[in-house]
Design brief:
Elements (H helix, E strand, L loop, with lengths): L26 E6 L4 H16 L8 E6 L5 H9 L9 H12 L1 E5 L5 H16 L7 E6 L6 H11 L7 E5 L7 H12 L7 E3 L7 H11 L2 H4 L7 E9 L8 H26 L8 H13 L9 E7 L22 E6 L11 E6 L6 E8 L14 E7 L3 E9 L7 E9 H4 L8 H11 L8 H18 L10 E4 L8 H7 L20
Parallel strand pairs: 1-2, 1-4, 2-3, 4-5, 5-6, 7-10, 8-15
Antiparallel strand pairs: 7-11, 8-9, 9-10, 11-12, 12-13, 13-14
Helix pairs in contact: 1-12, 4-5, 6-13, 9-10, 9-13, 10-13
The structure holds NADPH dihydro-nicotinamide-adenine-dinucleotide phosphate and the ligand O=C1O[C@H](COP(=O)(O)O)[C@@H](O)[C@H](O)[C@H]1O.
The site of the ligand O=C1O[C@H](COP(=O)(O)O)[C@@H](O)[C@H](O)[C@H]1O has 4 residues, from loops.
Length: 516
């Protein structure tokens, strides 16, 4: 049974965790799909970051596995290609050498049991060097979902450690709709227990997303105005300044809703909207998130705005990519509105919006409060609490203040908590570092549970089927130019859902305000 956990100023100690035990020794991490993009860009840099900080089990070994044949040097070159170390940091350079010395590679297929026997032979050779005790194996699926099922089966049948802990880390996407998700889950469940399964949504490892629980529940000043009585609308926004170049093949099959909204943004929404958990234990947190998801009705067509970028400013349009079908209707931008049918949030629109090839890189939550009673005030801006998830992590609260001077005039300003300034020289870990560390600690709180997925797909499956023409005619996304703010229809879309723009005179960080 999960023991209750609480947080007292510092991160809870390992002893406070339950469910899976912490892995402290004799552990091999096997990265499947080690030749791929995710492994190179995220998994290996995160593993090195943890290794450097002493957060991996003592004597850890890292084994890459994929079909591509590579010798040791080629593999190590790939493995370190995204790891950044300063030229004068000799300690980190030595640590990187230790890290690659602890890393080996086995080539083999994903379907063939005999290839997994070869992998096991290699693991056993390593384990012979461990001094007694149980041996643990952690399998990271840096793989396309098309091979999740055979890999789950082969790992269980050929590579499962009999005396020790086994864990799998599975990447998104977890299916394409409700039915395929259920099929995927039940197939993997034949071989792996929920306890052994860590489904990554890397947004749950981002510092500002993890901070939401503290922001909400450790601050009475905020928590007492956190409901439909005070809040008008909530926007959760993801903007990327680049298109799907080079990933068109994957993206066209999935689209922006499956890529970002159904998982990353919906996870953020659940934490913004959930009730206070009884403890920080994984099941207490996830129970509360599921309660929120269960109260959300499927998204309606009328609450959806779809866009697709076209070439502009010398940049190619979505359909200009060779790997994208020339007539593709796949949305690269989507805004959807969700309503949570519970007493706290009834009637408050939660607008999730995400787009590729926009004017900037930004992920943020914007909570807009209702108008103050007019009378002594007229046309003053609404308060807003903004949580900037990335880049430049920050939280700012936009509040009206009297402009300095002899006149009595209210003007929007902000209380600004920019992390770089407030926590100078503090390292903010990468999301994948934080999550892989959680796997080692046996902490499931920041991983997605089966029932969360089921409810998340119930919310999105009807509009996804509509977009894909399963109910008849496909909707045509509106066009927006590469590098723009998104479809021009967006302004009206958010205004229709209650969002009021701050006065045009407001400018961050300095406003020139007339006070005459
Ligand atoms: N890349 C990213 O930034 C992110 C990726 N993800 C998720 O991580 C997982 C891996 O993504 P990514 O690394 O980009 O994917 P890749 O396309 O790079 O695939 C990873 C490896 O899997 C093998 N592979 C590729 N296609 C197939 C296929 N059709 N059948 C069998 N094996 C194949 C290849 O290895 P080999 O041929 O050598 O066996 C490849 O190196 C996916 O689930 C993705 O959704 C999640 C968040 C971000
Ligand atoms: O899961 C994904 O996330 C990335 C964005 O991740 P971030 O940590 O850089 O915000 C996105 O580019 C990709 O399309 C998607 O699959």
């Amino acid at each position: 049974m999960a023991r209750e956990r609480s947080m007292s100023g510092t991160i809870p100690s390992m002893e406070e965790h339950s469910g899976n035990a912490a892995l402290t020794d004799n552990t091999i991490i096997v990265v499947l799909g080690a030749s791929g993009d995710l492994a190179k860009k995220k998994t290996f840099p995160a593993l090195f970051g943890l290794y450097k900080a002493g957060y991996l089990p003592r004597g850890v070994r890292i084994v890459g596995y994929a079909r591509t044949k590579m010798d040791k040097d080629e593999y190590h070159k790939r493995q370190v290609s995204y790891i950044k170390i300063k030229d004068d940091d000799t300690k980190a350079q030595e640590q990187l050498k230790e890290f690659t010395d602890a890393s080996t590679y086995v080539a083999g297929s994903y379907e063939d049991g005999a290839a997994f026997d070869e992998l096991t032979k290699h693991l056993e050779e390593i384990e012979e060097t461990y001094k007694g005790g149980q041996v643990n194996r952690v399998f990271y699926f840096a793989l396309p979902p098309s091979v999740f099922i055979p890999v789950s089966k082969n790992l269980k049948e050929h590579c499962y450690a009999k005396d020790g802990d086994n864990r799998i880390i599975v990447e998104k996407p977890f299916g394409k709709d409700l039915q395929s998700c259920r099929e995927l889950i039940s197939s993997i469940r034949q071989y792996w227990h929920e306890d052994e399964t860590y489904r990554i949504d890397h947004y749950l490892g981002k510092e500002m997303v993890k901070n939401l629980l503290v922001l909400r529940f450790a601050n009475i000043a905020l928590s007492s105005a956190w409901d439909k009585n005070s809040i008008s609308n909530v926007q959760i926004t993801f903007k990327e300044p680049f298109g799907t170049e080079g990933r068109g093949g994957y993206f066209d099959e999935f689209g922006i809703i499956r890529d970002i909204l159904q998982n990353h943004l919906l996870q953020v929404l659940t934490i913004i909207a959930m009730e206070r958990p009884v403890s920080f234990a994984a099941e207490d947190i996830r129970d509360e998130k599921v309660r929120v998801l269960r109260a959300i009705s499927p998204i309606e067509k009328k609450d959806t705005l779809l866009g697709q970028y076209v070439g502009a400013n010398g940049k190619p349009g979505y359909r200009d990519d060779d790997s994208v079908p020339p007539q593709s209707n796949c949305p690269t931008f989507a805004a959807t509105t969700l309503y949570i049918n519970n007493p706290r949030w009834e009637g408050v629109p939660f607008i999730l919006k995400a787009g590729k090839a926009l004017n900037e890189a930004k992920v943020e939550v914007r909570i807009q409060y209702k108008d103050v009673t007019q009378g002594i005030f007229k046309d003053i801006s609404r308060d807003e609490l903004v949580v900037r998830i990335q880049p430049k992590e920050s939280i700012y609260l936009k509040l009206n203040m009297k402009t300095p001077g002899l006149q009595m005039r209210a003007f929007p300003t902000e209380m600004d908590l920019t992390y770089q300034r407030r926590f100078e020289a503090t390292n903010i870990p990468e999301a994948y570092e934080s999550l892989i560390r959680d796997v080692m600690r046996g902490d499931h709180s920041n991983f997605v549970r089966e029932d969360e997925l089921d409810h998340a797909w119930k919310i999105f499956t009807p509009i996804l089927h509509w977009i894909e023409g399963k109910d008849g005619q496909r909707p045509t996304p509106v066009s927006y130019p590469y590098g723009s703010r998104g479809p021009k229809e967006l302004e009206k879309f958010v205004a229709d859902r209650g969002y009021k723009r701050t006065t045009a005179e407001y400018n961050w960080p300095i406003s020139q305000v007339s006070n005459l």
